[in-house]
Write a structure and sequence with these properties.
Layout (H helix, E strand, L loop, with lengths): L4 H10 L6 H8 L3 H11 L11 H11 L6 H11 L13 H11 L13 H11 L6 H14 L7 H9 L4 H8 L3 H10 L14 E2 L5 E2 L2 H12 L5 E2 L12 E3 L4 E5 L6 H16 L3 E5 L5 H16 L9
Parallel strand pairs: 5-6
Antiparallel strand pairs: 1-2, 3-4, 4-5
Length: 318
């Protein structure tokens, strides 16, 4: 069948979409059967955009509302869809589509919010995943992703070694850097540091009065309090909060905190929360920092000497 080139381009453009047959008949000057046969010869399929009316959509929704498919129907659908890939597989939304979806969903609460899976569904998911293993390709991809997410701890090397030598456990150091304690141990071994065996239930140092402390610096402070004859309690709760102080002096109603890891962002956030609790509850606090623990001695010795003569409150000198 010989078809002029201008007719071919016109058919490809207008034949599939147009609703007005007369438009094509007038332009091509042929009857409709000839036009349809030419399109069929070229492999052009005719379709008309059809949009369902809102009334029809609502009627269909009400018809299917609350109905459940029979077991046979579910089996037929399952057999028909088996081994078929979802139409969306390998496709990606354009940036414009993503923007439109974001605007449409703005302010909406996800349907799953506040809902919990029934025990039966959780059990089915558990059984379905039991014994399954990732393929070699998937394991390789996960390995690459984990490597990308690894933190560069080399920049904190000196700080971590100093904290560990002061007696802080690897787990406690790991919390401040957002990694597991075993990661800290591996890094310390890589840097040639000797690893201490933890004892006293996570506390590494025992003071002269029998208190167990978490660092060498805390042990020295506890021994100083003991040598000055100041009664003290270790790790007392602060004003019914979940936080605990380092020491509490019941004779003076004063709290002491040693900020050994000050300078680390996550540690400083925790420190600020504790200081806020002290201020909000009107509690007296002595703050000590690394290499500046002599502040405690400078504060306490004059007070203790004066207290022998007359009753002087420690807070008058803080």
């Amino acid at each position: 069948m010989r078809i002029p080139p201008e007719h071919i381009s016109f058919l490809k453009k207008y034949y599939p979409m147009t609703k007005d047959r007369q438009f094509l008949v007038d332009h091509l000057k042929r009857d409709w059967k000839q036009i349809a046969s030419q399109a069929a010869y070229l492999g052009i399929r005719r379709f008309v955009k059809y949009k369902r009316m809102p009334e029809a959509i609502e009627k269909s929704r009400l018809f299917h509302l609350g109905r459940k498919r029979s077991r046979e129907t579910c089996l037929k659908i399952s057999l028909k869809m088996r081994c078929k890939k979802p139409w969306i597989t390998g496709k990606h939304h354009s940036e414009e589509t993503k923007r439109k979806i974001g605007i449409a969903n703005k302010g909406k609460i996800p349907w799953i919010t506040g809902r919990k899976m029934p025990a039966e569904v959780r059990h089915k998911i558990s059984i379905a995943g039991k014994g399954r293993k990732h393929s070699w390709e998937t394991r390789k991809i996960l390995s690459i992703l984990r490597k990308k997410e690894r933190k560069n701890l080399e920049i904190y090397k000196d700080h971590m070694i100093r904290a560990y030598k002061e007696g802080y456990s690897a787990n406690k150091i790991g919390v401040n850097y957002g990694v597991h304690g075993n990661t800290i141990i591996r890094r310390l071994r890589k840097w040639g540091e000797s690893i201490n065996n933890s004892k006293f239930n996570g506390h590494l140092f025992q003071a002269k009065d029998g208190h167990f402390l978490r660092s060498r610096a805390e042990k020295l402070i506890d021994d100083k309090l003991n040598s000055l004859g100041v009664g003290h309690i270790v790790e007392k709760k602060i004003a019914n909060s979940r936080y605990k102080c380092d020491w509490y002096l019941p004779d003076f109603d004063v709290y002491i905190e040693y900020w050994g890891l000050s300078g680390k962002e996550s540690y400083d956030k925790r420190k600020d929360k504790k200081i806020r609790i002290y201020k909000n509850n009107g509690l007296k606090l002595i703050s000590l920092y690394p290499n500046k623990t002599d502040k405690l001695e400078r504060k306490l010795i004059p007070i203790l000497e004066l207290k022998k003569v007359k009753n002087i409150q420690l807070t008058d000198f803080l």
